[in-house]
C-alpha cells in the first residue's frame, strides 16, 4: 500500500448499529479471498475467532502458515520468506474514521471493519487504533449529542482522524457547505483547538453524495470542496530522517512504525544502477522514489492523485533539489506509459510498481514487460491479487526471484508482499531460487490446466512430473525455446 497514491478507502457495512457508542460492522462488501479463508482455518485450529485474541507471536506464526498454504494452493513459485513483523503490533493506525448517522434521535458512530473481510467477531478492532483517537472521538461525539449541534450532526458523513504519531488532524466529511453547517464546524474546531488532545489542524471536506468512501474520489463540481478551519495546510510524517509533507486528502500509510523497514526492503530488492532510470508507478507523494532516486541517473513517478503529485514535487524540491526527477499526474494505463515514459532502450529501467488493492489496469504489466526492464519490484497491498498478476510477469519473460512479505496491517488478515521479478536471461545462470529437483524439466511460461487447476510457469508440473507425466496420468511434454536451454523456475 503506497504512501501517497489513491484514496484506497474501505467499503463499509452500516447494519446492526447498536448504540451511541462506536460499534464495529459485522461484514464486508468484498468476497472473501482464499487467503482469508486460510486465516480463518488457522484461527479455528487455535480455538479463537479473532486474530486480536492472539499474542502477536501467535499471529505471525498463523500468517506465516497461511501464506505458505496460499502459495501452494495457487501453485505459485516459491514459498516466500518469513513475514517481517511490525514494530508496533497494536494501536498503530495513523488514520481512523467513524461513519456518523442520526437515527431515532441518536447520533451513531460506526466503526468500519478494517481490511478484515468477513472474519467473525472483530469487536476488538479498537486495539488497532491509538488511545488518543478514542479520546478525540469521545470528545467530538459529546458535542454532537447536544441540540445546538444537531443540524451539523445530521449533515456529517464521516469523522476522520489522521495522525503523525504525536499530533492529530481532524476532517469533517459533510454533505453540504452552508452557513449553519460551517458555523457549527468552526465552533467545534475551536473547542478541539482549546482541548489538550494535541490537535494540529481541522478541515471540512465536501461529499454531497454521502458516499460509502470516506474520501470520495469522484469530486463534486464546486467552487470550494475542501476548507481549512484552522492549522497548517498540510500534514507531514518523518521517515528515515526525511520529512514528507502531503495534503490532507492524499493517501498515506496507516502504520508508520514499519516504514523504515519497508524502505530498507525496497532498497535491498531493487538493484542499484547509477546509469539507470527508476520508474515509480503509483508514486504517491514520493516516499519510495525520494528514498531511492540518488542511486539512479534519473527517476520518474506517476500517480493518479493530483494532490499526491503536487506533494511529491514539493518534497523533491526540499529533499533532492538537484536530482533529475519528474512527477506526472495520470491514470496509470497503457496510454500513460506511452505518453510519459521515454523510448525503450534509452537506459536500463527499474520498475517500482505499487498499485492500490484492486491491482493494475488491464494491459499495464504486459506493456511494462515489453519495455524489458532490468528488474521489477511489484508490491501487493492485497495478497489476493498475486495469483492474478504474478503469472502475467511469468508469461512475459520474467522470473520471480524473491518474495518478501511485511506485516503492515497487524491484527488483520492481510499482508503487504514484495515480489521481485527479473528477466529470465539474467537468472538463467543462477538457479538458486525456486529450482526444481535435479533432472526435472521446465514447462514454458504459459498457464496450463490439470484437474481443473491453473499451473503457472510450470511450477506445479515440476513438483509432480517424473517421466513427462503428471500424476493425473495426462501427458504434458516440456516445451523449450528452440536452441535455448532453460532452467526450472
Structure, described:
- The protein is α/β, with parallel strands linked by helices.
- The protein has a domain at 23-236: OB fold (Dihydrolipoamide Acetyltransferase, E2P) (Beta Barrel), CATH 2.40.50.1070.
- The protein contains 13 helices and 18 strands.
- The chain has helices at 34-46, 56-73, 131-144, 150-154, 179-194, 259-269, 289-292, 306-319, 334-340, 364-370, 386-395, 424-427, 459-464, and strands spanning 23-24, 95-103, 106-111, 156-163, 168-174, 199-206, 226-230, 235-239, 242-246, 273-281, 296-303, 325-329, 349-353, 375-380, 398-406, 416-423, 448-450, 453-455.
- The strands form four sheets. It has a seven-stranded mixed β-sheet.
- The longest helix is centred in the N-terminal third of the chain and has 18 residues, at 56-73.
- It is globular and about 70 Å long.
Keywords:
489 residues; alpha/beta; OB fold (Dihydrolipoamide Acetyltransferase, E2P); 7-stranded mixed beta sheet; globular; disordered N terminus
Gist?
The chain is α/β, with parallel strands linked by helices and 489 residues long. The protein is 26% helix and 23% strand. Helix 1 (34-46) packs across helix 2.
CATH class of the domain at 23-236: Mainly Beta
Global geometry: globular
The count of helical stretches stands at: 13
Strand order, main sheet: write it out: 1-3-2-4-5-6-7
Count the E strands.
Answer: 18
Structural class: alpha/beta
What is the architecture of the domain at 23-236 at the second tier of CATH? Beta Barrel
Helix content: 25-40%
Strand share of the residues? 15-25%
Report how far apart the termini are. 28 Å
Mean pLDDT comes to 81
Under CATH, the topology of the domain at 23-236 can be stated as: OB fold (Dihydrolipoamide Acetyltransferase, E2P)
* Poorly predicted runs of 5 or more residues: 3-31, 216-223, 429-489
Instruction: Describe the largest sheet.
Output: 7 strands, mixed
* Gyration radius from CA atoms, angstroms: 24 Å
